[in-house]
Fold this sequence. Notes:
By secondary structure, the chain is an alpha+beta fold. Helix content is 40%, strand content 24%.
Amino acid sequence: RRALCLLDPYGLHLNWEVVFKAGQMKSIEIFLNFPVMDMNMNVLWRNLEKVDKSQLARMNAFWGDESWRNVAYIKTKGLFGDMEEKATIEQVVKAYQNRLKEVAGFAYVPDPIPMRNSTGAILYYLFFASPNKTGAKIVKDIFNKYKDRGVI
């Protein structure tokens, strides 16, 4: 049996277990809206200590654990000791792409396509993840054709 699943959460309201289970089944392909606008507005602040605990809990549930912190915040040496810098959203997106492959077990996860509003701001990235090489090739071709047009 095979299935195609569209995961369109309202912001970070999606539990990683859903994505993980789909990847482990090796028969489900998914389209997933990755809500970077919600992440930026509510979680990925320069000072993580100021983020509300309920927002952190949503991010942990969406990501599956707290490992997103190691991706989103990079420790560097500064003049006055260790400093923490906020990573770019592209780095977070790339890490999630790797997570879909390495943790969830999807064999094929092409680069996602950014979906923008009328002013060009990225609201979310559309991911495709699949156990199927042919499906991934088709979606990759479509994403490449429209990647610079992703205005919604």
